[in-house]
Amino acid sequence: MEFEKIYNENCLITMGNMPDNYIDFVITSPPYDDIRNYNGYQFEFEKIVQELFRVLKPGGIIIWVVADATINGSETGTSFRQALYFKEIGFRLHDTMIYYKNNPMPQTGNRYHQHFEYMFAFSKGNPKTFNPITESTKYHGLANMKNRGQEGSLNYQKTERTKEKKVGNVFSYSIGGGISTKDKIAYKHPAIFPEKLVADQINTWTNENDLVYDPFIGSGTTAKIAHILKRNWIGSEISKDYVEIAVQRLKQYTANNLFST
Question: What is the pLDDT along the chain (261 residues), one digit of tens a residue?
Fold first, then answer.
């Protein structure tokens, strides 16, 4: 396998050429339900997840960004079924995070505006890397913390509050033209990641020189951010049209031939 390369093929072919326990981290958003027109290509979910389990290193993480379409008046529940299948074949559901959109497209009908997608974090065993994003705490120093014991009694103990704490697992991003990315060409793709979302997750679960893979790399956001953050990367993309968008977007970052068939 060549790093810094987008393979214009079904991701099952790309992963079929990878040895076992090869990838450190995966981040992707699959073509779920009918929300995305993926140029008519078939999405073989179960086969793809089985291959992801094989090629991911022990301790590796997959960030799977997914939501549900509404069909015949009901949300499909695809996101939940997919999460349960990941668990069924051996992944841990390490965290269920939320990708919250500050400015989603307004919706008609008798439902509230859809503001979020799930960001499932699946791990192959215990995660080997965790570099948490932190924020300042309002108070720090020693404090009396009240804890309820197993027998129901309340116990007080001195606990040190630190100056920093981990952020919560709801990540808010503004989206849309000129916000998700400054790269105008990327908007020729119908659904792009906010670059900040990808950067936050790559920084959290990987270290420099780790290998990042996106099986549905689309407009190339994962590749761009991985390159900037000094991670190795590989992408698969079955649509030649999308590969051409990604190659145009990425050519300023590397002199390598990014395209492979």
Answer: 899 999 999 999 999 999 999 999 999 999 866 544 455 566 899 999 999 999 999 999 999 999 998 888 899 999 999 999 999 999 999 999 999 998 877 777 888 888 999 999 999 999 999 999 998 877 655 455 555 555 556 555 555 666 788 999 999 998 776 666 665 665 556 567 888 999 999 999 999 999 999 999 988 999 999 999 999 999 999 989 889 889 988 888 765 655 554
Closest CA to 67 of 77, 57, 58: 77
Distances (CA, A) of 61 to 38, 77, 191, 204: 25, 23, 23, 10
- What Rg value do the Cα atoms of the chain yield, rounded? 20
**Which residue segments constitute the domains of the chain, with CATH numbers given?**
5-132+168-254 (3.40.50.150), 135-166 (no CATH)
Distance CA 148, CA 154 (A): 5
Q: DSSP states of 39-101 as a string?
A: TT----HHHHHHHHHHHEEEEEEEEEEE---EETTEE--HHHHHHHHHHHTT-EEEEEEEEEE
Cβ contact 194:182 at 8 Å: no
